[in-house]
Structures are given as C-alpha cells and as structure tokens.
Amino acid sequence: xxxxxxxxxxxxxxxLANEGTIFLDEISDMSPLAQVKILRVLEYGEFERLGxxxxxxTDARIICATNxxxxxxxxxxxxREDLYHxxxxxxxxxxxxxxxxxxxxxxxxxxxxxSALRQGKKITAIHPAAMDRLLVHDWRGNLRELSHxxxxxxxxxxxxxxxxxHVHFPPDLEPLQTSANSSEKSASHAHPDHDGGxxxxxxxxxxxxxxxxxxxxxxxxxxxxxxxxxxxxxSRHLRELDHx
Length: 244
Known about the structure:
Strand order of the largest sheet: 1-4
Mean pLDDT: 81
CATH topology of the largest domain: Helicase, Ruva Protein, domain 3
Largest sheet: 2 strands, parallel
Shape: elongated
C-alpha cells in the first residue's frame, strides 16, 4: 500500500480482475493521467501498484460505461483518441429512459419491491395518479434518478399503497413542459374513469394507456407518441384491454 502505516501490499482493481472482468463507470470523466495508465493496460497488459515501481501483468476484460459521447470528448480534446479506438471494440447504445417508457412499469415495480424490502415495509400497489406522475416524468437522470425517486416515495409511504403525495421530484428535475404539451401531460395526471378498485401496478398501466388513447381521440400514432412507446407496444396494450 502507499498510505501511512501500511503493513502489507494491497491488491488493486486490475490485479484483482486478472483473468476476469473489470467495470469502469463514467470513463469520460477520467483524468489525462488515468487515461495514459488505462491505455498501457490495454496495449501491454501492464500496470504498477500505487507507490510501487515494479511492473505487474494482468489479463482482464474491460467493460466501460459513459453517459456522454466519447467521440465528442475526443473532438473536444478531453479524451485520448488512441484510447477511444482501443475501447471501441463492441459498443452497446442504451437509449435514455425517457425513450423507452414501456419499460418503466417493470423497472418501477422492481425498484419498489427492493426498496420496500430494505425499509421493512409491505407496499403492494401504486395509486393510478401516482403512476401517472412517474410515467410522464422526463427521467433525465435515468435509472439513478428512478431508483432515488422510488426510495424516497417508499420512505414517505406509511401504508401499503403509494399515493400521489408520496412522489417527489427535485425542482430542477421537474419535466420541462412547453405550452403545447403541458396541458396534455397535466390532463393525464388523473383518471376520471378510475373506480377505486384494483390498484395493482399492471391495472394502473392499463388504465393509463386507455386514458391517453381516449385523450388522443383513439389516434394510435398520437397516443403512442404521448406515451413514449412504439405503436406496436400500444397495439399490444389495446388488445389486452379488449380481452378483459
């Protein structure tokens, strides 16, 4: 180790990942010095322990993640082009959460189950109006924001149903609404046809789809755009509603 009082050498991440896999998150924020070191590992499989002059070998698969375009960072002179090409073996582009809203119900359900378990609560459902708030939010913070939001609403909930007042977003992360779409989004915050019965997550999603479809005058293209899902996904939801 390189810290005061160290009695024995400590293995670093690349040494521990030898013959395995190491995950580097937010690689676009890596300092120039760190980029040089990572490039050396990729080129020669070599690295030095902190505070050591002895060269060590590693054979690790590297998986990286970034929330910005590395190509743009290269153009800006903030990321090494040679490192970019070494890392760019296989690229998987994951769309922003707001561009795959059809996944929101499942993600919310999983996060809610885990959050309730951690907090020792038994939450069984989400009120439709609360679900509406979650479905129309922009989620500019993607999964991190979703996870934090679900943890917060779980904390505020003292019963077994998540209510609208339990859903909180930081003011600076509230959806940016234009005058053209704010009325459409705010209109979807309430379901006048909700009978107060089934409050399950699946039922809330079905009611929301049906409500937006009616608001769009049964125009599938417009309804799909408002919901942020594909027309194929909307058609599947509508078929399920017809079979009820």
